[in-house]
């Protein structure tokens, strides 16, 4: 199942894996738990 969601925290909390797209390209992928702790992703998309 593919979920497209603006609320990254919520999406990562229910997902097994995640993909971050930028201008139509996958720039980051991995286990949701690992992505939630990724520093660059947290700053850019999670507001932390």
UniProtKB/TrEMBL annotation:
Arranged from A to Z, the UniProt key words for this protein are: Amino-acid transport, Transport
Family of this protein? Belongs to the ABC transporter superfamily.
Keyword check for Transport: yes
Designated name of the protein: Unannotated protein
Q: Does the keyword Heme apply?
A: no
Species assigned in the record: freshwater metagenome
User: Which GO terms label this protein's molecular function in UniProt?
Assistant: branched-chain amino acid transmembrane transporter activity
InterPro entries given in the database record: BCAA_Transport_ATP-bd_LivF, P-loop_NTPase
Biological process (GO) annotations? L-amino acid transport
Q: Which PANTHER family match?
A: HIGH-AFFINITY BRANCHED-CHAIN AMINO ACID TRANSPORT ATP-BINDING PROTEIN LIVF
